[in-house]
Specification:
Layout lengths: L2 E5 L2 E6 L1 H10 L6 E7 L2 E23 L2 E16 L9 H30 L7 H4 L6 H7 L1 H4 L4 E12 L1 H4 L2
Parallel strand pairs: 5-6
Antiparallel strand pairs: 1-2, 3-4, 4-5
Helix pairs in contact: 1-2
Length: 173
């Protein structure tokens, strides 16, 4: 799936599949998805993980030296659909390694997506402006802030917490 983003009648850019997933996560529109990522135990193979939002993504916008600082806290739950049979999913450390890797994978991709929207698109397609608007006393103050132009100066912190489990554990009982 590729999403195209328009500002008015101007195409500002397009997102690939992973970037589209990141957009859905940040905007709380992800229902569920199957993600295929490198296997943290063997980078020559992949694992399939079925994910959904465990709770809504919490986005916060503040200003540091006049520049937008955007923090995104993401909570994902999911199940391992497939993995190399050499990985023992009954070992808690294996699940911890997978959770840690999925955290890093999603944090890196979401951060990359956010910088793409700010630096390349120069467009707030995730609508972070909605978190800033209440901080202004009047509409004139909001307009004077020039949010859409200042968004390109944003910097981001993304925190992902995953709870990935294995359905395989039920089969071993």
């Amino acid at each position: 799936m590729v999403l195209l983003f328009l500002c008015g009648d101007k195409l500002v850019g397009e997102l690939d599949n992973v970037e589209t997933l990141c957009h859905l996560i940040i905007t709380n529109k992800l229902e569920n998805a199957t993600v295929i990522i490198p296997n943290p135990f063997d980078f020559n193979s992949t694992i399939s993980v079925y994910i959904n939002l465990n709770k809504k993504t919490e986005n916060d916008v503040s200003f540091i030296n006049g520049y937008p600082y955007i923090e995104c806290n993401v909570n994902i739950s999911g199940d391992i659909l497939s993995i190399d049979e050499s990985v023992d999913l009954t070992d808690p450390s294996a699940l911890q390694t997978i959770n840690s890797y999925v955290n890093t994978y999603l944090e890196d991709n979401i951060t990359s997506y956010l910088y793409k929207t700010a630096k390349e698109f120069k467009s707030d397609i995730a609508n972070f402006g909605q978190y800033v608007l209440p901080k202004y006393a009047t509409w004139e103050d909001w307009i004077a802030s020039d949010w859409l132009n200042n968004y390109q100066n944003s910097f981001f912190t993304v925190n992902v917490n995953t709870n990935i489990q294995s359905g395989y554990l039920f089969n071993k009982i």
